[in-house]
Design goal:
This protein is an alpha+beta fold and 246 residues long. It contains six helices and ten strands.
Length: 246
Amino acid sequence: MHDISILSEIGGRAYNQDSIMVSQKNGKYCIAVADGLGSYNGSEIASRVAVQYLVDWFNENCDSEELFVKSSISSALMRAHNKIIEHKEADMSISSSCTTIAFVVSDNTTSVMAHIGDTRIYEIKNGRILYRSKDHSLAQLAVERGEITADQISTHKDQNKLLRVLGSDYFVDADISTDFFPLSKGDGFVVCTDGLWEYVKDKEFEELFENKSTSSAKLNKLKELHDERADFGCDNFSVAVFVKGE
């Protein structure tokens, strides 16, 4: 049983540059979440093109042995990048558009998690974060240099200064992680843009999965936390929550 809920909201901005899609087929599923960079015109197109291409790729390759191969995921991301470039070359008004991307493919036994930028993937098992993607940002570098803690990323001055994006002048490969340990009932994923995770602590993500609730209930709780803490004019925010059932 695949229990997946998604949400994408405009926040306090004029329009939504995030994109989010999921697909389920033959016992497998994928989650794709992208955050178009707000300071670059047309980035909502870049985010939409990226998630659409990756979901189409999943649907076409769902029964292929290549589905869980890192090099295949990397190639799919490169082709998504190239699709964005094609749109940019056809419309010079969006020539600077680009996006983050987070992509999960799983059959609950094997899971592959790939990301570029600061849209995050949390894999949570037994109420604990087993895997959390590391942002490609200057703030993350500050963590690695010991200048700040991981919890301080969300308020750091360089939190939104990204080192890798999809659709820029050249393709920089994703960080890709594979988990070969099966998900148990109540385990799952949260995939979300920075417009959501900057208001939620890691411990709060874990607490969500300590409570054996549905994906919809968990998503509603995340939205409550966001709405309680976000300021007027806050960023777009998007989140997908997956919970393994029976």
